[in-house]
Fold these 4 entries.
Entry 1:
Amino acid sequence: MAEKQIAAGIICHDGKVLIGQRKKGKDLEFFWELPGGKLEEGETLEECLKRELIEELDLKIKVGDFFMKTRYEYEFGAFVINAFFATTESFDIPKICEHEQVLWVEPQELTNYHFPPADTPIIEAFLSTLK
C-alpha cells in the first residue's frame, strides 16, 4: 500500500495553536487534527501546506521550520505526516469547509482534545518542547 504524504501545520498566532475537528462521515470523524492535507504531484510539502490552508480555511500562513514526521497505517491507508511550524497574522478564519469546526487553543490545552494515532506523537513532541 502506497503511503500518502501529508503536510500538517503547527499554526501559531499570539501564543495559540490552530486545530480542526474532522467532519462527520469522513475517516476518523470528529477527531481533532493539525490543519493540512495531501501532497500533490509536483509540489513541495511547504507548498502543499500553504495550498491546503488557503483551500480549506482561506487562511494565509507563513511556513517555518520542519518539526518532525510520523508514519501510521490505518485500515484505510498508510500516511506520513510531515509537521511544520507556521504562523498567521490573525485569529480570523474566513471559511471552514473541510472541518466541523476549528479552534485556537493554548498549547497546554491540546491534551484535552482527541487526536488520531498519526498526529498524537507530533502533539506530544510539540508539548515536550514547551517544558
Note: The radius of gyration is 14 Å.
Entry 2:
Amino acid sequence: MTDSKQQRINMVESQVRPSDVTDRRIIRAMLEVPREVFVPRSLQALAYMDEAVPAVEPAVGRSRRFLLAPRTFAKLVQLAEIGPDAVVLDVGCATGYSAAVLARLAKAVVAVEVDTALAIQATQTLRQLGANNALVIEGALELGAPSHAPFDAILLEGAVPRVPGGLLEQLKDGARLVAVTADGTFGRAQVWQRTGKVFDSRPVFDAGAEPLPGFARQADFVF
C-alpha cells in the first residue's frame, strides 16, 4: 500500500467518518481521489491534514487559495444531497480537488475558477484522472455559471460573508446550495433550499474556511 493511499484511509477514518458523514458514495470518492496531486509539490506532505491546505505557492499579487479541510468539505457535500443524475456547480474549484470528488458523485460538474492558471491546472489534472464529466470554466466566482444553469446543487469552496442572490437563482426548484458564511475564516456552514421563488436557509454546523475572492461584503455608504 502506498503512503498516499494510507493517508487517504487515515483521513477518512479519523476526520470524515467521525464527523457524521455517512454517505458511502462520498467516503468512496474521497478514498479514491489523490488529494496530494492538487497541492504544490512542496506541500504534498500536508495534503491530508485536518485543516485547509494551500492550493498554490504564496506569490505577490496572487490570491491565497486553499482546499477546504476534509471534514468540512465532506459535511458540505453530504448536505448538498447530490444524486447520480445531478448537475452540480462547484464555485472556486482552485486546482480541482473538489470537482474531482463531485465528478464521482454527479452526472456532471461545472467548476468555475477566477484564476486563469488555476483553471488550466484544474482542467489538466481532472483529465489526467479521467474526470471527463467535469468542466472547468474561467469566470468571476460570485457570478457562478448562469449559462449552464439551473443546477441540482451548488457548493462554495471557501468562506463568504453572504451568498449573492444571483447564485441562488441558478438552483433548480428543490435544489440546495451549501456554503460557509463568515466575515473572516470562522463561521457557520449553511444550506439554502429553493422552493419556487423562495429560498429557505438554515445554519447546520460551525465551520472554518479560507475566504473566496470576489465575495467581499460591500461597505456601507457614509455621507
Note: The helical segments are 3-16, 24-32, 70-80, 97-103, 116-128, 165-168.
Entry 3:
Amino acid sequence: MKYGARNQVTGKVVDIQKGGLMCKVKFEIPEKSKMCSVMTIESLEDLDLKQGDNVQLIVKAIHVLVIKE
C-alpha cells in the first residue's frame, strides 16, 4: 500500500473504547508515549483490531492512520 505521509511509528493497541458509531483506539508507542485514533466501528471491524495487536501508525497533520499487516 502506498501513502503520502512520511511519519510512521510502530505501536501496540492498549485500549478500545466503543460508542454507537465511533470508537477511540489507544496505542502505546516505543517512545513510552500514548497515541490514539478515532475511527468508525466499521473501520475497527475491517481492520480486526484487538487489544495487544501490533500496528503501524501513519501520522499526517492531525490524522493518525492505522495499518495492521
Note: The beta strands are 7-18, 22-29, 33-40, 54-60, 63-67.
Entry 4:
Amino acid sequence: MSETHISIGRIKRDISELLNRVAFGGERIVLTSRGKPKAVIVSLEDYERIQQAEEQTQISNWKAWLARNEALSGRILAERGGELLDVDAILTETRAELERRHDHLFDR
C-alpha cells in the first residue's frame, strides 16, 4: 500500500485529488506540518479495518482481565476455605466505623 507525505498547505489546494487517490487508489496520505506527521487520510476500508482491530484488542483485553479476575477470585476463595465474603456486612461495619470517627472528631 502506498503512503505519501503531503504538507497541510498542499491539502488545502489539492483536497479533491488527494481524497480520490485515497478512496480509489488505496493510497494513504500522511499530513505534515513543518515536516512532522500530524494526521493520516485513509480510505473508509482502512478505517473500518482499524476500528475492527481496536475492537478485537478491547475484547482480548477484556477477556484477559476477566480470566485474571476469575483466577484471583478462585485463589481468594481457596484461601478462605470456600467461605464467601459478606460484602454487605463489611460495608455496614465500615460505615459504622466512619460514623464513630466522625462523632469522635466532633465530640458528639
Note: Strands lie at 3-7, 28-33, 36-41.
